[in-house]
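Quick log. Single chain, no ligands specified.
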Amino acid sequence: MMSPEFLWYIPNTVEPGHRGDDTTTGWGSIEHSTELARTAEAHGWGGALLGAGWGRPDTFTVATALAARTRTFKPLIAIRPGYWQPAHFAAAAATLDQLSRGRVLVNIVSGLDDPAAYGDTRTDPAQRYARTGEFLRLVRRLWTEEDVTFDGEHFRVSGSTVAARPYATGTRTHPTLYFGGASEAAERVAAAEADVQLFWGEALDGVAERIDRLKALSERVGRAYRPLQFGLRITTLVRDTTEEAWRAAEEKVATMARSEGEAPWAGSHRGAVGQRRLHDLAARGEVLDTCLYTAPGKVGGEGAATTWLVGSAADVATALDDYRKLGVTHFVLSDTPYRQEAVRIGDQLLPRLR
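-> predicted structure:
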């Protein structure tokens, strides 16, 4: 099995207080984002997912600045088809990948995000996922072929060659393409076109079920690339002891309950199939597997903040290793305050996982 990838999370917002972060100034500044990236780099993280959404700083621009101010930090750049044209994105990403010597990672996002604000008219889920499939297929071709002609339902290019090629080394020919989504349409796109399928923090049996289904689906859709890999995006609350971690988790959930629905915890995932799967976990119990905490989702937590892995570094390492035994090799972890927890979790948890 390949060596695992461990990434942190940088929310990339101009507003303070994201998911309880206690930093009051600096959000949206290059100084603050650089501090978070360099902290992650110094404490064992391979890089970080950069949050994306209309109204936030442009993710690709921030990623470019951070790549220039770090040495090994790999930005996982969240981008949306409909915001980018595939040829434009392929050229921009290949340029940054070459300049950073192969440090670009890409997270393709298909969910709705105020599309009218940036002129995206495709709101039907089936059309959006069909468009995403074409986007992934065309970007990969533009990165690996010359004189590309493509005539799809959503995108067309003729005789297109990306002049700046992605940075190639060993078996790597282009940036890794991450993709999330739990609907049938999303899983078909991942099985056919993505490099890594990202899961939110489902219980082990749910992740095992989805991995089995995606592997079978990859065969049915005639996947033309290397086998699909799998990743986990989840909150990890780590303290020196198990008891201290659970006290902190319960205190944080109590704080969330007092401010349920407010912007720091609410997101844009309501109605998504993956979000419903997470919320359904709470009916099975407050703690699943060894330390998967479902209570945050009942008081406003969404996305990666819906369920948390809670415990000592040894507890959480064991839980993450259980996911790794299922075939998960990419981990995007976080907790708040982001800078403080990048240090704590990087120093206490990552050595156990490696």
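The mean pLDDT is 93.
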